[in-house]
C-alpha cells in the first residue's frame, strides 16, 4: 500500500510467477567473451555448450566460441576458442532472474502494459575459464602491454604553440588595479606587508594617529587596527593622547638627542 503523503506516483504491477520452478544457470564469462557477444548480430551462433557426464562423476561443462567471433579485422590477437566451466551448486542462497519488459508504443489503441516476470531460480553458478594454451598466453601478454602504456605522454615542441604561451597580465589583475584606482585605496594586503609598511613609517616618526596610518598603508581602518594592536601601543594620556607608537620590543631607534626624535604633533586628531 502506498502512503498518502508520498509525492512519487506509484502503480502496482503483477509479477508473473509461471516460471518460478524453472532452474537456471548464472554464468560468469571473461570480458573478452562478453564484448564479443555484445557486438555480435542477433541472428548468428555465438558458441556451443557441451555437457558430458560419466557414471559416478560430476558433469563436465565446456564452451566453444563460434569461429565467426574468434577473429575480426579490428582484432590484433585471437581470443581462445575452448573454455572450461567450473560448476558450483547454489544451496544456501535464493537467487532469481527477473525480466522487465516495457511496451514500445504506448499510444496504441489498446496500450500494452509493462510486464515483470520471474524467469527462474538460480540453481548453479558457473565460471568460464579458458585453457592456458599459446593463444590465451598471447592474449594476456597483449592486455599487459596495453595496461603498461602511459595515458599521458611528454612531447617535445619544435614550434611555438599559442595555447602554451603565458598570459602577460590576467583579467583578474587588470580588474583589481582598476578597482584600486576607482576606490582610491588598496584592498587588504598581506599582514606581513602591512607590518613592513608600519615599521618603515615609524622609522621616520615615533607617533602617528590613525588617519595618517590609513593614508600611508592604504588599508581599511578595521583591518589596520587589528594589526596595530599586535605591534603598537595606543596612548590614552597626554602629551600623545590618541596616537600610536611601536611596542618597546619593536623599537630600534638610533642613538640621537631626544630632541631629534620626531614627534609628529601636527598629525594629532
Automatic annotation (TrEMBL):
CDD domains: TFIIF_beta (cd07980). GO terms for molecular function: DNA binding. Residues 187-251 form the TFIIF beta subunit HTH domain. One of its GO terms (cellular component) is transcription factor TFIIF complex. It is found in: Nucleus. The keyword Transcription regulation applies. Residues 21-115 form the TFIIF beta subunit N-terminal domain. The keyword Cytoplasm does not apply. Keywords: DNA-binding, Nucleus, Transcription, Transcription regulation. InterPro entries: TFIIF_beta, TFIIF_beta_HTH, TFIIF_beta_N, TFIIF_interaction, WH-like_DNA-bd_sf, WH_DNA-bd_sf. One of its GO terms (biological process) is transcription elongation by RNA polymerase II. It comes from the Eukaryota. Residues 250-269 are annotated as: Disordered. PANTHER family: GENERAL TRANSCRIPTION FACTOR IIF SUBUNIT 2. Belongs to the TFIIF beta subunit family. TFIIF is a general transcription initiation factor that binds to RNA polymerase II and helps to recruit it to the initiation complex in collaboration with TFIIB. This is General transcription factor IIF subunit 2. It comes from Frankliniella occidentalis (Western flower thrips).
Amino acid at each position: 500500500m502506498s502512503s498518502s503523503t508520498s509525492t512519487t506516483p506509484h502503480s502496482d504491477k503483477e509479477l508473473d510467477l509461471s516460471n518460478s520452478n524453472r532452474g537456471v544457470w548464472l554464468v560468469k564469462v571473461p570480458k573478452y567473451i562478453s564484448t564479443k557477444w555484445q557486438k555480435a548480430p542477433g541472428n548468428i551462433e555465438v558458441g556451443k555448450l557441451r555437457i558430458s557426464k560419466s557414471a559416478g562423476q560430476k558433469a563436465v561443462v565446456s564452451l566453444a566460441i563460434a569461429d565467426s567471433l574468434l577473429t575480426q579485422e579490428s582484432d590484433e590477437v585471437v581470443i581462445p576458442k575452448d573454455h572450461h566451466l567450473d560448476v558450483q551448486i547454489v544451496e544456501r542462497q535464493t537467487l532469481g532472474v527477473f525480466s522487465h519488459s516495457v511496451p514500445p508504443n504506448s499510444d496504441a489503441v489498446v496500450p500494452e502494459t509493462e510486464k515483470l516476470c520471474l524467469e527462474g531460480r538460480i540453481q548453479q553458478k558457473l565460471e568460464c575459464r579458458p585453457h592456458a594454451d599459446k593463444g590465451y598466453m598471447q592474449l594476456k601478454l597483449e592486455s599487459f602491454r596495453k595496461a603498461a602504456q602511459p595515458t599521458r605522454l611528454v612531447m617535445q615542441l619544435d614550434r611555438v604553440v599559442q595555447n602554451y604561451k603565458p598570459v602577460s597580465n590576467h583579467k583578474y589583475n587588470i580588474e583589481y588595479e582598476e578597482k584600486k584606482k576607482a576606490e582610491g585605496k588598496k584592498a587588504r594586503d598581506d599582514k606581513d606587508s602591512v607590518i613592513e609598511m608600519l615599521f618603515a613609517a615609524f622609522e621616520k616618526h615615533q607617533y602617528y594617529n590613525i588617519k595618517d596610518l590609513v593614508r600611508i598603508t592604504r588599508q581599511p581602518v578595521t583591518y589596520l587596527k587589528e594589526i596595530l594592536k599586535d605591534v603598537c601601543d595606543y596612548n590614552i594620556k597626554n602629551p600623545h593622547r590618541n596616537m600610536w607608537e611601536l611596542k618597546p620590543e619593536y623599537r630600534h631607534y638610533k642613538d640621537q638627542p631626544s630632541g631629534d626624535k620626531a614627534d609628529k604633533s601636527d598629525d594629532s586628531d
